[in-house]
Predict the structure.
Amino acid sequence: MSKEKIEYEKGSGNIFRDLGFPNPEEKLAKARLASMIYDIIEERHLTQAGAGKILGINQPKVSALRNGRLSGFSIERLFSFLGKLDRDIEIVIRKRPKDRSEAQISISTVM
């Protein structure tokens, strides 16, 4: 076994920022919301067509949502999907701590 040192760089916690995407906080928030939506769809054992009926979109859009192709979905639209899936949404606005240079968007789930 080799003891060769492997170089690495610690990520920021936001892959979109690390890869240099524009609007990384929004992209991460959308990805987290889409993941939550799809988790609910799977938890309910819905087909993509069945989920589409509930969400008011067609099956290809459910597939796009599932596969992370989120450019056609606003955060507001993702919120509306969560509402259609019987989830409440609570938004809390806080002042950014002085030790952090940029504001961030945080999404959490309460079971």
Remarks:
- The chain has a mean pLDDT of 91.
- Residues 42 and 51 are 9 Å apart (CA to CA).
